[in-house]
Amino acid sequence: MKTTNNNRFIFFFFCLFSFLIVLIPISNSVRALFLNINANDFSIYQQAIYDLSFDNLNPYLTIKGTGIFNDHVDPIIFLAALWCKVWGYTPYSLIFFEWMWFVLLIICTFVLIKNERKNNTAKILFSLSLIIFSRSFLQGLEFPIHPTTWSMLPLFLLFYFLIKDKFIPVVIFSFIICWYREIFPLMLISFSSYFLLNKKFKRFVVIFSIGATHYYLYSHLRPILLGPTVDYGDTLLKQLIEQHIFFIWERFKTFSFPYKVFVPYIFISLLFFKYEIKIKSLHPLQSLQSLIKHPLTAAILFVGPMFFLHALANYMVHHHSVPMIVPFLAVIIFSSLSDHILKNKLLLYSIIIIFLCLSSSRYTKMVKNTLLLDKDANYSYEEAREKLRALKEIKDKIYKIVILNKDTKILASGGVIASILKPNMKLYQFCEVTDNTLSFDYLLLEKRAHGDLNPLVFKDIIQIESDCMKYKAETVIDNQFFILMKGNFDDRCLKMSKRWPTPSTLIPKEKA
């Protein structure tokens, strides 16, 4: 009887987990279908991935106003380019590509725990609960597509092998992780000090060298080889050097700590002191040595630089927290702490409830997105069908235009771009990174308030349409959802220089 109940319990969780996992790409695909995924940041990487080739290793992004590797350094996007070549140049292909990293993380966790020992069903369910109900992962997956989110798998494996004391795989994944974002080499340099503290000098030198080499390549050689790069941290570091503690204090006073993301991991990390470091039962020096040797310290050292810089910038949203929680997640799952938690039912259920409560709103939103009940996509089903027909008409017309003249410049509002973008299109978004000295051959605007128009709002669309009417040569399409006009549209009617009068910090600056 007990075995039957256990099987039912396991089957219930299997069905629940399967539903939630599959819900993620379905929700994002519906959002993309109804233009609720904005060009920032989706279409920046979308255009980069579409245009990458052996003949074009650093494609210029009309969506961003710079080459992709002048913006971020994440060579892993070559893998995404291969994926799209196989599965098609659509936003849905990229949504599923990002989702696969999450699925592979779940499969990897299952296999690694399954190989540890028999009768570990409870640990598998507990570990998968931490992953599936991680608010950080869900926030990252809800804001596709970013290599920072994809880094969840190699980071997880890096810390798994660190815990298992298998240094060769640690070296391999330390090298690989540098392909996901330029911040990771700096994090590796900090991480290498874990080995220095533990007097493992050869290991320290190897990891430090990997981080330092990549950091030099990205921060010093990249501008020489590719030209000016986007300043994502140089200004912060310069202010830090000049103002020291005063700058830190002013920044941290305004820092909005994302407690819903980090509090569960802080709570569980404190349990290490009770169950593993045993600070009360040891001499203070022994407690310190125990802490230094623990992989929890390695996780803190790895995460430290990224957390510090994002705290100074007061910007820690969407995908940013993913690399900050993965090391702690690996340490929680693969250290003996998980065994202590599983033995204490009250503690076990408390942790799961905390994770569930902090992530449930994300899944609720996904259900609303899927059923078109979200406030940003609240259509009747008849309206939904009409919008899809209108979108198909727009796409067919634009593709015919681009085929006839591949140099045609099209300026569009932010929601529709992901759906119409194809390789080597000169498609621009209406935002601060678009050069306001350009003129455009076509203007495409979304006429309904539904959809992600950011940074515009519906009244902006109405004003732009009105101002640009006198510069049009032809109204190509005009229906209840879109207007596509042909003409000579520049800042006289677009007024981008008035909307964004100062140069954007999101495009490279020539050095003085």
Describe the structure concisely for a colleague.
This protein is an alpha/beta fold and 512 residues long.
Q: How is this structure best described in words?
A:
With 512 residues, the chain is α/β, with parallel strands linked by helices. It has 25 helices and 7 strands. The chain has helices spanning 2-33, 39-51, 68-71, 77-87, 91-114, 121-132, 135-141, 147-150, 152-163, 167-177, 183-197, 201-226, 234-243, 245-253, 259-275, 284-293, 295-313, 322-334, 337-343, 345-370, 381-404, 417-420, 458-468, 491-494, 496-499, and strands spanning 60-61, 66-67, 409-412, 426-429, 440-446, 472-478, 482-489. A hairpin with a 4-residue loop joins strand 1 (60-61) and strand 2 (66-67). Helix 1 (2-33) runs antiparallel to helix 5, helix 1 (2-33) runs parallel beside helix 6 and helix 5 runs antiparallel to helix 6 (121-132). The longest helix has 32 residues, at 2-33.
